[in-house]
C-alpha cells in the first residue's frame, strides 16, 4: 500500500527489449486472482462440480449447547475413497464447524478460518470469535464467491456458544444463504434427519442433552441405512460453555437381520 | 518551546533522542479545550468542555460517535480528528458488516495506533495534531483509552486531556478509588466535577447557573449504546452534580493549583507535563 | 500450445464431457403484505424459509427493522436478501453519522431503489416491500421489482404468494370495482388492517407451498413498532 513512498526505478513502465513504450498509463493492469481468469489453454474454467465430497452433517441445539455429527467418509463420485476423515472440526473453544460438499473447498475455507483464529490469539486480548460472527463472515465469503460465479461447493454447519453461553446453530450454503435454528442438516440429512428431529421437538422447551444425543445417534443410523454415500462411522462435536471437543469415531449400531424378511424385489 | 535545528521534519532526531515535530503535535493537544473520560464497572463516560471560539460562532463538536459501542472526544486540531473519526467509523462499519458484531475496542485502538504511527516516521507526513479520549464498551466491559499524536495509546481508568487538564487530573486521582463501584449518575457527576475544575477561577465564579457551563456528555455501557446526552439531560446532570458538589468537594477540598504535579492516573505510563522523551512503550490491555 | 490444438477446445457441449451449471439464484419463498393507514402502517411476512420441497427453517423473520419508523420486508433469494439488507444497514448508519439524523422512510425508499439498480445486470433476486411512516407521520408502502423500480402505494402484497394476495387486498382494502364514491369508502382502522393481513396469509398458506408456518406482523405507529405472531399451517 505504501509503496508509492519509495522512488520508482528509472525504467519502470518502460518497454521490454524490442517492444514499444506503453503510453497508456503504465502497466497498471490489475492482477486478477487466478480463480477469476477465464478459460485457460486446456479449456479450464472455474470449478463447475464437486469432486471429492462429504455427505450429510446434522446439528442439534439443546439447552446449553450444541451437537454436530457427520460420518467420516469422503467419497470420490460413488467410490468410498477416504473412510477416516473427520468432517466436524473444532475451530476454537466456542465454535464447531461441520462441513459437507467438496472436501477440497472445505479444507480451503478451514485454512482461512484457522488463520483467523491465529490472528485472534495474536491480539492476546482474550477475545475469541463467536459462532454467530463466523457464520456471518462465511455468508460474506461464500456470497462473494457465488457472485463471481466461482462458488465454493460447500454446505457448512456452524455451531457453538457465545460469550454468555447461549448456544448457536446455523447453516451457510454455497450461495451464502444462511439461517439458524434448533436443528440444521445438510445433504441427505435435510430429507432424512430434519423431519425426524422436528417430530420430537417439545413445543414449550429446548431439547435436553440426552434427547439431543439420542437423536443424533438415531439420525446417523437412519442416514447410514438410507444414504448410499455414507459409512457406519461418525464423529460428534459437542460445544457448551464448559466444553468444546470432537468425540468419536462412533459406530452405527447396524442390524441387517430384517434383510432376510424383505420380499418382492 | 523554541525552534531549533532539529525540528525541520519528523524524521530528524535531536541529539537528545527526541522528535521535536512529534512533541509540537503533542503541544497542539494542550491548546484544545479540556475533556475527561472515566468509567465504572458498567459504563464509560466522556465529558467535554465546549467553549465557542467567539461569541458569534457555535462551539466545535467535541464528542464524535463512532459506532453503537464506541465514541471519541477530542482535543486539538478538530479537522484532524474528523479524518481519524472517519477512519474509525469505516473500520467499525466494515467489521460489523462482515462479522455482525461490534469491533473489540482494544483491537480497534491497535489499528488506529498503527495508522497514526506511520505519520511519525515519514518526512512527507505530519503527525495528527489531536489527542483522543475513546470510550467504548465490548464483551470485556467498558474501556477508556487515550491516544496521543505520537501514536502512543494508553488503557486508562480515567483520563483527561486538553488545556488546564491538570486540575481535572488532580480531581480524578482524588476520587479514582470510588469510580469502579459508583452508580451511573455518580460517574457522570464525577466527570462534570472534573471538567469544572479545569475552568479558570474567574469563569468559575460566574458559573452560578448550570447554563454557564458549556459541556457535552456522552455515555456508553452495558445495554446502553453510545449516546451524546441532550441539552435537557445535560442540565439534569449539571444540576445533580451541583447538588452533590458540596458533599463531594468538601470531602477532598477544591484544588485548582496548576503547578501541582501529582502522580498521573494512566495505568501504564506517566505523562509528565511539558516536552519529554518520546515513549516507545505501547500499552496493551493485559489479559483479564 | 497451438501445435497441440488445445486452443481450439470447443465452446459448445461435447458428448462425454461432464458439465454442471451453477445457478447463483435460488428461490427461498415467502410472502409479504403491507397496508398503510392514515397514521399507521402494518407489514406482515411469513416465517418459512424453503427451497424446492425442503423447509430449512420454520422461524425465519423476513422483516428487517431499518429505523424506528421503517421496516423492510424482503423475500426471494435469501442470500440476496441477506446481502441487500446488510448493505442497507451499513448505508443507513453512514447517513446517520454524516447527517446526524435518522433517514426518513422516503429517503430509505429512494436509496433502496438506487442500491438495487446498482446491480442492474446481476440483480438481487428479491421482492421488497418497504413500510413506514413518512415525515408527516402518514403510513406509506413502497414496493420494488428486483432491479429497483420503486412505486409508492397504500397497500401491496409481494413474494411467492403476491399474485394470490394482491387481488384480495384490492377488494378488501382498495374496494376496487365496487362503485363506491370516494366519500363512501369506509375508513381503514388498524384492527381491520391487521385482520385483513392475517386473513390473506391464512388463505395464502392454503394454496402456496412456500408460504406457511407463521406470520410476523409489525404495526408501526408514532409510538413504536408493535409485533404480533400468528400461527399458520405447517405442512
TrEMBL record, chain A:
Protein's UniProt keywords contain Nucleus: yes
Q: Name one GO biological process term.
A: proteolysis involved in protein catabolic process
In its keyword annotation, does this UniProt entry include Nucleus?
yes
By its UniProt entry, which SUPFAM superfamilies does this protein fall under? N-terminal nucleophile aminohydrolases (Ntn hydrolases)
Family annotation (PROSITE patterns): PROTEASOME_BETA_1, PROTEASOME_BETA_2
Lineage top rank: taxon: Eukaryota
Q: Name one Pfam family in it.
A: Proteasome
Give the transmembrane region(s).
none
Record's function text: Non-catalytic component of the proteasome, a multicatalytic proteinase complex which is characterized by its ability to cleave peptides with Arg, Phe, Tyr, Leu, and Glu adjacent to the leaving group at neutral or slightly basic pH. The proteasome has an ATP-dependent proteolytic activity.
Name assigned to this protein? Proteasome subunit beta
Which species is listed as the source? Answer: Drosophila grimshawi (Hawaiian fruit fly)
TrEMBL record, chain B:
- Report the residue ranges that make up the Proteasome alpha-type subunits domain in this protein: 6-28
In which compartments does the protein localize?
Cytoplasm; Nucleus
Q: Which PANTHER family match?
A: PROTEASOME SUBUNIT ALPHA/BETA
Q: Which GO terms describe its biological process?
A: ubiquitin-dependent protein catabolic process
Which PROSITE patterns does the entry link to? PROTEASOME_ALPHA_1 (PS00388), PROTEASOME_ALPHA_2 (PS51475)
GO cellular component terms, alphabetically, are: cytoplasm; nucleus; proteasome core complex, alpha-subunit complex
Start and end residues of each stretch annotated as Disordered: 247-288
Describe the protein's quaternary organization and the partners it interacts with. The 20S proteasome core is composed of 28 subunits that are arranged in four stacked rings, resulting in a barrel-shaped structure. The two end rings are each formed by seven alpha subunits, and the two central rings are each formed by seven beta subunits.
Enumerate the InterPro entries for this protein.
Ntn_hydrolases_N (IPR029055), Proteasome_alpha (IPR050115), Proteasome_alpha-type (IPR023332), Proteasome_alpha1 (IPR035144), Proteasome_asu_N (IPR000426), Proteasome_sua/b (IPR001353)
Provide this UniProt record's keywords sorted from A to Z.
Answer: Cytoplasm, Nucleus, Proteasome
**Is this entry keyworded Cytoplasm?**
yes
Originating species: Drosophila grimshawi
- Primary localisation category: cytoplasm
- What does it do? The proteasome is a multicatalytic proteinase complex which is characterized by its ability to cleave peptides with Arg, Phe, Tyr, Leu, and Glu adjacent to the leaving group at neutral or slightly basic pH. The proteasome has an ATP-dependent proteolytic activity.
Return the protein name.
Proteasome subunit alpha type
UniProtKB/TrEMBL annotation, chain C:
**Where does it mainly reside?**
nucleus
**Signal sequence region:** none
Location(s), subcellular: Nucleus
Gene Ontology cellular-component terms for this entry are: cytoplasm; nucleus; proteasome core complex
Q: Which of UniProt's keywords are assigned here? A: Cytoplasm, Nucleus, Proteasome
Q: Does the keyword Protein biosynthesis apply?
A: no
What Gene Ontology biological process does one annotation of this record name? proteasome-mediated ubiquitin-dependent protein catabolic process
Q: Which domain of life is it from?
A: Eukaryota
Tell me yes or no: is Electron transport among this UniProt entry's keywords: no
Pfam families registered for this protein in UniProt: Proteasome
Query: Where do the coiled-coil regions begin and end?
Result: none
Subunit structure of this chain's protein: The 26S proteasome consists of a 20S proteasome core and two 19S regulatory subunits. The 20S proteasome core is composed of 28 subunits that are arranged in four stacked rings, resulting in a barrel-shaped structure. The two end rings are each formed by seven alpha subunits, and the two central rings are each formed by seven beta subunits. The catalytic chamber with the active sites is on the inside of the barrel.
Q: What is this protein called?
A: GH16458
Q: What species is this protein from?
A: Drosophila grimshawi (Hawaiian fruit fly)
Q: Which gene encodes it?
A: Dgri\GH16458
